[in-house]
Amino acid sequence: MNVKLILKTLGKVLYIQAAYMTFSVAVSLYYMHHGATDESLWPFLIPIAAMLAAAVPLTALKVHNTIFNAREGMVAVALIWVTMSVFGAVPFAIHGGFGTVIDCFFESASGFSTTGASILREIEHLPKSILFWRSATHWLGGMGILVLALALFPSIGERAQNLMAAESPGPTSEKLTARISTSSKILYAIYTGLTLAQIICLLLAGLGLYDAVVTALATAGTGGFSVMNASMAGYSNVAAEVVTTVFMGLFGINFTVFFLLITGQLRKAFRNSELLLYLGSILGAITLIALNIYSMYGSLGETLRYASFNAVSVITTTGFSNCDFARWPTFSHFVLVLLMLMGASAGSTGGGIKGSRVLILLKSVVREIKRLVTPKRVSVLRMNGKPVPETTVTNTLVFTAVYALIALGATLIVSACEQAPGYDFTTNVTAIISCLSNIGPALGRVAGPAGNYAGFSQVSKLVLSVCMLTGRLEIFPMIVLLTPATWKNASLRK
Questions:
Q1: Is 172 helix (H, G, I), strand (E, B) or coil?
Q2: Predicted TM-score (pTM) above 0.70
Q3: Which DSSP string do the residues of 301-332 spell out, in sequence order?
Q4: Would you state the torsion angle of the CA atoms of residues 148, 85, 106, 115, taken in this order, to the nearest 10 degrees?
Q5: Are 350 and 169 spatial neighbours (Cβ–Cβ below 8 Å)?
Q6: In b/e form, how buried is each residue of 393-422, taking b as 16+ CB within 10 angstroms?
Q7: Within a 10 A sphere around the Cβ of 472, how many other Cβ atoms?
Q8: b/e for 16-47, b at 16 or more Cβ within 10 A?
């Protein structure tokens, strides 16, 4: 394995993260200028200096072999995301209001993985710049920092599609154009355009500039960190909730669909089978939940307001809330768990198993039933009119099995650590699913929309942090990174 190539790529990413953190410095300077006494530059200047100090020697490495194979792509992505989360936790640690080192790492990993689970009991008393950085981690993690690196550094390495495939969510990684760097630029242009559009809409809905920006950053990455203790309910602004619902839904769509729309391929975009499943699942979930909770709210308008916002928030794995859905009936909880497991579309900023995988799984079941009835039948799985390679079908089945095994193992560890009242089976299981699917709030009072993860033990928080990063990177990069056999042939000589 070419360790030098991996480290050199890490150095380039650290430059990007350091530059990105300067936005938080600007926010701190602005509020210091306007009399804020709780602001400080040190939580950002120290990690920026540390990242630059690490990036300079790493990018200076002489690499002769610049080809990323699949294994090196996975190791590079996993190592970069862990390192990014470590440096991202430094502002929280220096500020001192986030608890232990593991608590700070949990918050940072939750931000970059776009999970939105938090250990904070009180949010609104924190400095604006710290909360800005917290929400900004979602935006960088949403589309992926390596996608941005490929856009900024086109010569990052040969076969860079292995980097993009390891970071981009979904069973397949689809290029928009022949050149990876051009595809990356298009993706970030769409991503940035949608983010700016939401900021403008939130301003028109009555939010202030700061609140509009941090809400849009968290929505774009489908992360869900809010600067309000009560999440979106804290604004008491129905128009802002409607805007956020719409944009959460948009960011849960495969970005290839937006590219098709921009380039005039409307027929192909609207006949996308994953898009139809995604939209159908949202409408179905809203209908079922609304029928189930109507008696709690008494009016159709209020019922649809809460059902639509939270259904879209959960399926897109954003994690915003405008009410405490832990109080809803069991049937609605079951619908929400199904949405948690499915998640958003492949190629979106959302998490979960992904709609395309669900489609492949369903089509595989139907095919096997047909084979049992007619053993000589030859059936090819198709999506969007194209045959699905058998390797993709196999990878989907393996992914689902490994996802379930990780969820079971992590639940076992967390359940062994959490014996206090309130940490029941539902709380522990849905906390794991929530973190592995990058959603944020779980079910139950402890970690639900009105709760947080502060009460979990340090071991549980570490397990949940690993689950968040593992889920965001689609499991296998983290497994490859942590497998001893990966490092047997590691070399610094290439």
A1: coil
A2: yes
A3: HHHHHHHHHHHHHHHTT----SS-GGGS-HHH
A4: 10
A5: yes
A6: bebbeebbeebeebbeebbebbbebbeeee
A7: 28
A8: bbbebbebbbebbeebbeeeeeebbeebbbeb
DSSP secondary structure letters along 212-268: HHHHHHHHHTT----SSTTGGGGG--HHHHHHHHHHHHHHTS-HHHHHHHHTT-HHH
Contact assessment for residue 461 and residue 102, using Cβ atoms and an 8 Å cutoff: yes
The number of residues making up the chain comes to 494
Phi then psi for 387, rounded to 5 degrees?
-70, 140
Task: List the beta bridge partners of residue 386.
Answer: 383
Residue whose tokens read 């159709």: 300
Reported as a single tens digit per residue, the pLDDT across 311-332 is 999 999 999 999 999 999 999 9
Query: What phi, psi does 491 have (nearest 5°)?
Result: -140, 140
Number of CB atoms found within 10 A of residue 157's CB: 23
- The amino acid sitting at 212 is A
SS3 string of 45-88?
HHHHHHHHHHHHHHHCCCCCCCECCHHHHHHHHHHHHHHHHHHH
Measure the CA–CA gap between 239 and 233, rounded to whole angstroms.
Answer: 12
Look-up of token digits 């198993």: 353
CB burial of 209-226 (b: ≥16 within 10 Å; e: otherwise) equals eebbbbbbbbbbbbbbbb
Sequence letter at residue 470: T
Residue 440 near residue 434, CB atoms below 8 Å? yes
3-state secondary structure of 391: helix
Report DSSP letters for 356-373, one per residue.
Answer: HHHHHHHHHHHHHHHHHH
What dihedral angle (degrees, nearest 10) is formed by the CA atoms of 413, 417, 419, 423? -60
State pLDDT tens for residues 338-390: 999 999 999 899 999 999 999 999 999 998 898 888 887 778 888 888 898 88
**123-135, pLDDT tens digit by residue?**
999 999 999 999 9
Q: What is the pLDDT of residues 133-148, one digit of tens each?
A: 999 999 999 998 888 8
d(CA 14, CA 51): 6
User: What residues form DSSP beta bridges with 382?
Assistant: 387
Helix, strand or coil, per DSSP, at residue 2? strand
